[in-house]
Amino acid sequence: MMCSNLRRWAALDPLAAKMGPDVFLWRASALAALGILFLAGQGAAMAASIPIPNGSFESPTPPPGYPATPFVDEWQKPPAPAWFNPETTGGIAWEQLSGVFPNTAAGSPDHIDNMDGNQAAYLFTLPEVALVQRLESTFEVGQSYQLTVGALGGGGIAEGSGLALSLYYLDGASRPVAVSTSAITYTQAQFPTATHLVDIGVKTPAVQTGDPWAGQNIGVQILATSGMGAGYWDLDNVRLEAVPEPAMAAMLALGLAGIAARRWRIRRHG
User: If exposure means fewest CB atoms within 10 Å of the residue's CB, which of 47, 93, 173, 244 is most exposed?
Assistant: First the structure.
């Protein structure tokens, strides 16, 4: 069967007819390997989306007449730190410092023009205010992970206010350990308007066999890292993608080409 396929390829490729079978097979294997190497380089094109429950913050909807709700389905909030005093936030309780809100009507001055769905989340600019979710999906060997979030600053947010995006896992003591973290600093240049979300993100390196997070559940954290509670971050459209490691795909391609060549020579000379 392999010889028959070689003859067909030779008929389609005039140059192959001038080659010996070993040279022809080497050329065919090299072309196949180069093709797979090209695909390996297109990692983003092969990225697989990982579902994040309530990633667009559509649930729950605020009660009628309320502009927002502090409840966020599927997401968790850290407990209030010992230093927190509601008097510093005008009587707003810790649980109220994050939540979800509906978009205003199109044409309103504060309408967010690229909101995914009809709701987004808010996060006051106070350290340790956060939204956290632990997914059913796990960190798989050979994959890197890209977390992307739409964000903007509003409510008089101060220049220099900080936000951190993290992908994490739980260690043996159930403590969160960051795999990768991206620090975001609010500037008017990066977030020029309070009516248009800007994508921010964090990416992990490819998971290796010996990594302690290999096989562990993926955790997502969005954390305010600085600020005095004046102003807020609006967040929406949280997305997570698994991207195959190009080097692994390349090694597999070269290995398969080598195995194919060796098996053909054994059959030919056997």
Answer: 173
